[in-house]
Every structure is written in C-alpha cells, then in structure tokens.
Inverse folding.
C-alpha cells in the first residue's frame, strides 16, 4: 500500500498546483501586466513614437495607433525608469526617480517638450487619484523629485520625456502605498464632468482602430467659456489611460480658438474601457475634468452614437 500511496500523493500535488497556477493567470489578466510590454506595442515605444502627439493633426493613422500604448514598460530604447523608493506611506510624499540611459548612467540633459523637460503622470491602478506633475531635476545627480498625494493601493508612475541624446520615450513603473486598499470599479460610461464650477462635455466617435476626433466643450454657469488660457503651450491637455494595463496616451489639441471647444485627434487602439483626464487653464488656475469611455469595435463606420457618443461629433 505504501508503494501505491506515493504516486497518488504526487498526482494530487500536481493537480493542486495546476489549480493554483490557473488562478494566478486569471488574477494577472484581471489586473493587467506589471512592467510588461506586449511585443506588438514595444516597437513603437522603442522608436519614441509613443506619448506626446504634436499639435500637427497630420501623421498617419498607424503612428497615432502606436502612440496609444506607451508606458507599459520600465525600459525602452535603452532608457530605464527607477524610483528611489517603490513603497511609500499614504499622504503627501516626495516621489524621487531617476532615468538611466543606454550607458547605464543617470540622464541629466533633456529636451523640452511642451514647456517642460519631464511630464509625470501618477495614478492609482484603479484610475483614481490622477496627478499630472512636473518634477524638479537635480542636474548633479540626475534625480527628479516632486511632491504627490497618495492613498493606499497600487499606483502607476508614467514618465514622458525626451533625452537630449535620444528620442522621446515614455516609461512606466509601479508604486505601492501601504494601508487598507479599497479599489474603485471604473463604472459606466461618463461623458460629462463638473469640476471647480466648470461643466465639461465630451463628444466624438468611440470606436477602436480608427482615427477619431474628440471634442471637449467647457462652460461655466451655463455660459460657454471662450477665454481659456494656455497651459504648457496649449489650451488643453488630454491623457487617456486604458483600464487594466494602464496603457497611456498623451494627446494635444489642434490649434484653435480659446474655447469653448477643444478638439483632439487620436485613435483608441483596442475596444474596452478608458479613463480620460483633461487639464485646462482658466482664471489663472489649472482644472482637471475626468471622463470614462467604453470604446467599441470598429466596423468601418462612425460608431460614436452606437457607443453612447454625446452627439458633439464634428
């Protein structure tokens, strides 16, 4: 009986291990990859095509689609993002980070993009707590620092930069904040937001794989806002992040009037849920409006109304 018992025990152990591995794969798919960049997206990031789109609305649909999947990896094109501490306590904290180059040394020289050398997005993995900040560089050490507000949970830190000796690149890494976590579901589609007394609505075609124009309209007390102020060289900045893996897209608007509408050209790479954050400046202050969109399959036609578009297509 003892000779037969050992094979049975081994078989039972293997079966149990298979169940655990299957559960782990399911959890990974639900949360999204951590510091993993799909092969089909890596090429775009390696050549610096991801991240900030230019004001020029030209450019191919393919390049705009590639730009929609940046920030999924800590390393790209020879550059690597590292946090001084990837575990912090909640509250107002100083975030310190360094970017190393192909030679392994900290990068200390950057070209300016939209009036800043580094654009940093810090957002919780459930797409709450969004902050678009601009750290200060210690040119002697290559370390960037900035104060951010953190709540318990898993966060994503995305750095959008242009090294002086290389091409623009977007890098992302994870930050864990201690304490009881209360993840928030992304929820239903939401194409309007009210922030600081302003009402902002989002319109446009919400289908994947095709160039689309998004129009964001700003009003206050029922009246259109027609005197938006430039912020970082534009009347608005739009960051889109894909739920799950937090694929990142930072788009800038067409040149146009200072409101009430701000238009952006972009392309959603895949169907699914996205969170959009619009930064705009008025009255000397920067305000951030937040939207949730559920992007549908592209079928060769304008699906904006089919997917709950607000009817503000242009």
């Amino acid at each position: 009986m003892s000779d037969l018992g050992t094979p049975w025990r081994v078989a039972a152990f293997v079966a149990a291990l298979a169940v655990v591995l299957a559960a782990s794969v399911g959890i990974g798919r639900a949360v999204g990859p951590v510091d993993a960049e799909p092969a089909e997206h890596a090429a775009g990031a390696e050549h610096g095509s991801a991240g900030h789109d230019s004001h020029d609305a030209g450019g191919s649909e393919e390049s705009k689609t590639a730009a929609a999947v940046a920030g999924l990896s800590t390393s790209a094109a020879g550059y690597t993002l590292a946090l001084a501490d990837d575990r912090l306590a909640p509250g107002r904290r100083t975030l310190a980070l360094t970017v190393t180059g192909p030679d392994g040394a900290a990068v200390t020289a950057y070209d300016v993009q939209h009036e800043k050398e580094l654009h940093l997005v810090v957002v919780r993995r459930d797409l709450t707590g969004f902050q678009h900040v601009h750290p200060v560089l210690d040119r002697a050490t290559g370390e960037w620092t900035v104060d951010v507000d953190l709540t318990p949970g898993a966060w994503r830190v995305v750095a959008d930069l242009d090294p002086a000796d290389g091409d623009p690149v977007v890098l992302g890494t994870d930050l864990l904040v201690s304490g009881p976590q209360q993840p928030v579901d992304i929820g239903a589609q939401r194409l309007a937001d009210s922030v600081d007394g302003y009402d902002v609505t989002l319109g446009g075609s919400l289908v994947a794989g095709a160039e689309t124009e998004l129009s964001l309209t700003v009003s206050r007390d029922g009246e259109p806002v027609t005197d938006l102020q430039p912020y970082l060289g534009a009347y608005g900045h739009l960051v889109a992040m894909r739920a799950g893996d937090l694929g990142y897209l930072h788009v800038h608007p067409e040149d146009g009037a200072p409101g009430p509408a701000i238009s952006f050209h972009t392309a959603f790479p895949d169907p699914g849920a996205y969170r959009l954050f619009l930064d705009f400046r008025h009255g000397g202050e920067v305000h951030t409006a937040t939207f949730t969109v559920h992007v549908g399959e592209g079928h060769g036609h304008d699906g904006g109304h089919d997917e709950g578009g607000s009817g503000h297509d242009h």
About this structure: Residues 1-51, 53-67, 300-314 have pLDDT under 50 and may be disordered. The helical segments are 2-31, 39-46, 61-66.
